[in-house]
Amino acid sequence: MIKAAIVGGSGYTGSELARILCRHPDISLEAITSRQNCGMKVCNVLPSLNGFVDLCFDSNLKENGDYDLVFCATPHGASMEIIPSLMERGIKVVDLSGDYRLGDPQLYEKWYGRAHVDLRGLHDAVYGLPELFREEIRKASLIANPGCYPTCSSLSLAPLLSAGLIDNYVIIDAKSGTSGAGQELSKLTHHPACGSSITPYKVGNHRHIPEIKMVLSRVYGNEVKTVFTPHLLPIVRGMFTTSYAQLKDNVTEDDVKSAYDKMYGGSKFVRVTNMPSIPSTVGSNVCETGFVIAPENTVVAMGALDNLVKGAAGQAIQNANLMFGLNESTGLDFPGLGV
Amino acid sequence: MIKAAIVGGSGYTGSELARILCRHPDISLEAITSRQNCGMKVCNVLPSLNGFVDLCFDSNLKENGDYDLVFCATPHGASMEIIPSLMERGIKVVDLSGDYRLGDPQLYEKWYGRAHVDLRGLHDAVYGLPELFREEIRKASLIANPGCYPTCSSLSLAPLLSAGLIDNYVIIDAKSGTSGAGQELSKLTHHPACGSSITPYKVGNHRHIPEIKMVLSRVYGNEVKTVFTPHLLPIVRGMFTTSYAQLKDNVTEDDVKSAYDKMYGGSKFVRVTNMPSIPSTVGSNVCETGFVIAPENTVVAMGALDNLVKGAAGQAIQNANLMFGLNESTGLDFPGLGV
Amino acid sequence: MIKAAIVGGSGYTGSELARILCRHPDISLEAITSRQNCGMKVCNVLPSLNGFVDLCFDSNLKENGDYDLVFCATPHGASMEIIPSLMERGIKVVDLSGDYRLGDPQLYEKWYGRAHVDLRGLHDAVYGLPELFREEIRKASLIANPGCYPTCSSLSLAPLLSAGLIDNYVIIDAKSGTSGAGQELSKLTHHPACGSSITPYKVGNHRHIPEIKMVLSRVYGNEVKTVFTPHLLPIVRGMFTTSYAQLKDNVTEDDVKSAYDKMYGGSKFVRVTNMPSIPSTVGSNVCETGFVIAPENTVVAMGALDNLVKGAAGQAIQNANLMFGLNESTGLDFPGLGV
Amino acid sequence: MIKAAIVGGSGYTGSELARILCRHPDISLEAITSRQNCGMKVCNVLPSLNGFVDLCFDSNLKENGDYDLVFCATPHGASMEIIPSLMERGIKVVDLSGDYRLGDPQLYEKWYGRAHVDLRGLHDAVYGLPELFREEIRKASLIANPGCYPTCSSLSLAPLLSAGLIDNYVIIDAKSGTSGAGQELSKLTHHPACGSSITPYKVGNHRHIPEIKMVLSRVYGNEVKTVFTPHLLPIVRGMFTTSYAQLKDNVTEDDVKSAYDKMYGGSKFVRVTNMPSIPSTVGSNVCETGFVIAPENTVVAMGALDNLVKGAAGQAIQNANLMFGLNESTGLDFPGLGV
Fold first, then answer.
1. With left for phi above 0 and alpha for psi between -120 and 50, is residue B77 left, alpha or beta?
2. Same domain, A12 and A152
3. Yes or no, beta carbons of B336 and D48 under 8 Å apart
4. Can you list the GO cellular component terms from the UniProt entry (chains A, B, C, D) (predicted)?
5. Half-sphere exposure (CA, 13 Å, Cβ side) for B314?
6. Do A32 and A58 form a contact (C-beta atoms < 8 A)?
């Protein structure tokens, strides 16, 4: 049994980790921290976990806690403060913040507004998008778990880029449920402001822009110019991305179909479909993706997923499974709600 | 032209007052205050008023401002601090807070947690529900504008009580859009928490309980035992109340129908219908009400309105019209959106 | 391994049965019927079941199919046509329609508008609300699976009635997500009509009225006068009921608390809480219930559940587990989404 | 007083026309037709119009009716059947269907699947987007009122194309409330299917594609390659478009700002803003538009409007005002709800 802890367990991502881990056959949840709820029973703060998680929130991880694996559901900035000492203790870590995603410390500083304090970790961390980088993940000790937007858009564009079917300029119009914005109160997620609207935010300057660009460029083997606009949807769970690119000359619909099938044919968690849909994925670790060839030789690549599962906690556990040599889908083999 | 000012103009209620007043033929909006947005153009803070309101927010009302009428869209506690001096200057006031609604200072202290500081105003204020207390309102100088829940539930229960058709025990199950909770951020109105749910709150201890009881008892001529449960709906605008009472012996459906028709037959703003519906009222000053005789000799009285219009700003203007001898519907004669 | 089939598998209830059964360790799903989708792969119609259900829809159950258990997710009227022959073949049946819920054929005819055609089944069927009637269910061959509204309201009122703490007159104000209305298109569930509103329907004449009354009266040991008003919420999954009753003299809050704890202390699927909440239950077989003592000696009993799980498919599987001597929570031991 | 009739008055567009016209000072509503509701009082079918419209639905327009103006809120196909005879009678017509929008009969046949039966009308009709084609509209007898998507996207892209600031390839990612899909029941607008999701539909083959392309090309003076993807939002009213184009070399942010200000500086109904928002426009005839210069030299042009007002009925009345020499904003000078 792999002994695991969650740091930052009372936010939406942390509690989603607990929701899935409590039923994982090979990982046992040993500790959950939350400064805010320190000392309280987890199931009193998160009533849905009643009968499934019998722990109290700790304020911090125990110095001498016997953990094999730690999930950091901490905000960026906090993760890189605590991860070096975990690594030194030989604990494998999946970090769900943005701290280790952009390999380049200068890029980090530019987008996150502070200097990175763990350059060694930043260098060693593996970007945890299993469908693209599975082999590296298996060998990793520190995983930078991808953002929800990068997961959804990269998975839907990767087949096109990998097969060289499109130009190196992509436009990603992304729509997210409000749970992606987290538990902290904000004007953006105040129901009277967002409940009957769709709200673009951070247009042209969202931190996921360099992350998406990094992933796509790596898949393409060359720089991919990336335009990304996130919008907040008036739903709680779920994400949809609609991406656009110009097909190269003479690319046929069959070529495109083959590229998707080839990349995701054996995949447990990416489902190729004519029409991706949020409800099919909600509650599950599945990303649905598909495409339409539109007029003007433009391909419309679509993706749908549950931002808290495949977009965060589920993918983190998928990464952990790989790091520990388990079957990739262990503890994650449940279908979406469908409706 | 009646010269009016709004104190507290950047909240939802204050901006709704501005939205309606800017088109009122006999009231001119001379000033709007907002400490938070002091100095800014109103239409920069509230873009929908662009081209309609050409004022800047003041921090406070001018000491020597020439106003005939002031709408106080201030929080309870603040209203009673500023209203006495307005009254002394001979300005008519409509207060949209709870400060002057409960005539009894002890009741006020019990439910609002502080001593009332304007006993004279409290004594003189008239409760501004025109369909029930129109003649008093015409003569008033200070109006306590009703809460949204008391408006919706009182209007739907009043015909039954006035005609003596039901027992003096009513149950009101109320559902409100989130704009009723105001602009201040709160866990209750955080979209991820409320956007896919219905959330009861302050069950058994909401401040509208004594207010509703006061109105119903006055209509009935005797104490009406009042149970009231508010719920937050995942919509922005609109309120619905479903109320229950036992019919007295031998009361027929015709008796009930007659009571509603009699009370609201000539009413501009209360529409009797088989099935009240929020969308029919949204954007308008209309309250729809109707009833069904259910099994067990129980009458189900329903009401629907726009919580920001008939539930707040529209009713305030209806009251102002009456106080100044205007036609009750001046500036308010526009239909709801319907869909 | 118990061999099971679903009749009517492409509706919301049928597909929810498949969603849960595909992971049940002791029940294997052998067949699913759907006239409309006959011949199609289940996972093409219900993409979320891809990788979990490898069947095609049949038009009807095979005459000689080797089933131990059949779930009828058929409309009322259809169930009673097919169930007698299943019973003759010795197959255990859980019927999710209303056909077998009201034991009395005259009551059935009154509320369902047709004569019952399987009087023997109607007589033998056991009402499948395990928290109230567990022992009978264990011995049953035919289960009438409760409606979603009766489940939610009965579970929240039963402790009060069972302990004799309230008068025999209850008011149930119920709110349901739209998935409860099923897959058939209707004006009521047309998004433009219902998406920014709350819509009461069938006030005073919903078929769940006699069902709720039957259950509550059985728990109370005497007739319980029952008023029930359903409302459609602008959410997809989830149900909330707010119920009202007069406490008998001298009943204390502790008495009420004890009644809930006593009835549900050992329960896997009913969680007593101060404030029931839909999101805590969505995706799970849990019903949350709790109460507040409001003014006027009135108790407000609240319930929340997922209308497709504890309100339909989950409870059906819970009943099947009991009928076959399995642990009640087999295949159902997963937590709700929480957010 | 201009005498007007509405053909097809019980759909969402028709009733929105009635909602606005009933308060128009210079247009009197003389007749409304609806086959489905023939003989019924308008205000019984559309309760929000109670006290505002005192007409019954006719089955058809009277042969000898004395109308100056007819609004056709009929489906495409039906409009071109009835409009020729109206034109012969010298009645001015605003057609809200797609029948007269695409000037070219072959293009019409390609996208609407039938031959056009009124080639003369098709030739003479003027495309009614006043902010772009105001002078033509003034002289027109037959207006093809634009679709909601073409209005929102064209208004937000026109300044860029008119000033020659972008390449002739634009991507429009559009999101609409469900009222845009009309009153007819459909799987797409079934609440359980769409209420917690965002649903792309008709990707690459929506009828608004050639319409948008026609408008943009006309503004640009040359062909504009147009990619358009509509999505259904889980809200009732409101539309948002996010459009993408490559800026030409050396175009600055100031150039772009100037282009918007120049085109819409004196406009009553197009508001240039940093961040367009649906709630600011709902209930009003305003389209908000604005832009952000994103990385990769890409401009993101955004638009928001109420699909039933500026996207349909309000714009139709704006066109009628122009045709009859009235002030463009007569009867339309009311602000949006804001919240």
1. left
2. no
3. yes
4. cytoplasm
5. 27
6. yes
Same domain, A234 and A97: no
Whether A148 is catalytic is yes
Catalytic choice (D72, D148, D152, D194) = D148
In whole angstroms, what is the distance from residue A250 CA to residue A163 CA? Answer: 14
Residues C34, C160: one domain? Answer: no
- A23 and A93 housed in the same domain: yes
Q: Are A114 and A192 contained in the same domain?
A: no
Q: Helix A105-112 and helix A208-220: axis angle, to 10°?
A: 150
In-domain check, residue C327: no
Is A227 in the same domain as A165?
yes
Average pLDDT over residues A49-64: 95
Rounded Cα distance, D280 and D278, in Å = 5
Assess if residue B197 is contained within a domain: yes
Q: What is the mean pLDDT of each run of 10 residues along chain D (339 residues)?
A: 96 97 98 96 97 97 94 97 97 98 97 98 98 98 98 98 98 98 97 98 97 98 98 98 98 98 96 97 98 97 98 98 98 97
Cβ neighbours of A203 in D, within 8 Å = 292, 294, 300, 302
0.90 exceeded by pTM: yes
The answer to whether position B134 is within a domain reads no
Percentages (nearest 5) of helix, strand, coil residues in chain B: 35, 25, 40
Starting at the edge strand found earlier in the chain, the sheet holding B92-95 runs B57-58, B27-33, B2-7, B69-72, B92-95, B142-144, B126-127
Does the pLDDT of residue A10 top 90, yes or no? no
The tokens describing C18, both together, are 């498949």
Angle C92-C309-C276 (CA atoms, 0-180°, nearest 5)? Answer: 135
Residues of B in contact with A183 (CB under 8 A): 190, 192
CATH number at residue A245: 3.30.360.10
Nearest-5° Cα angle at B93, B89 to B96 = 145
Task: Output the six-digit token pair for D135.
Answer: 């002078």
- Using CA of residue D22, residue D144, residue D178, residue D176, what is the dihedral sign? negative
Give the other-Cβ count within 10 Å of C254's Cβ.
8
CA distances from B98 to B13, B94, B107, B114, C104 (A): 13, 11, 12, 12, 53
Of the candidates A148, A146, A130, which has an alpha carbon nearest to the alpha carbon of residue A138?
Answer: A130
How far out from the chain centre does Cα A227 lie?
A: 19
Spatial distance between the Cα atoms of D141 and D158, rounded to a whole number of angstroms: 25
Partner-chain residue, chosen from D46, D288, D334, that has the shortest CB–CB distance to B23: D334
The DSSP bridge partners found for residue A239 are A176, A305
Give the torsion sign (CA, D112, D115, D121, D123): positive
**By residue range, what is the domain housing residue B88?**
2-124
Q: Look-up: residue for tokens 């991919």?
A: A224
- Can you tell me the distance from the alpha carbon of B92 to that of B302, in angstroms, rounded to the nearest whole number? 33
Domain count, chain A: 2
Does one domain contain both C156 and C251? yes
* Claim to verify: residue D163 and residue D53 sit in the same structural domain: no
A185/B191 Cβ within 8 A:
no
Is residue B290 domain-resident? yes
Secondary structure letter of residue A204 according to DSSP: T
- Of the candidates A281, A286, A339, the beta carbon closest to that of C179 is on A339
- Cβ distance C17 to C316 under 8 Å? yes
User: Amino acid identity of B107?
Assistant: L
Strand ranges in B27-80 using DSSP code E only, listed in sequence order: 27-33, 57-58, 69-72
Torsion of CA B68, B74, B78, B82, to 10 degrees: -10
Find the closest chain D residue to A225 by CA distance. D296
Instruction: Give tens-digit pLDDT for B227-256.
Output: 999 999 999 999 999 999 999 999 999 999
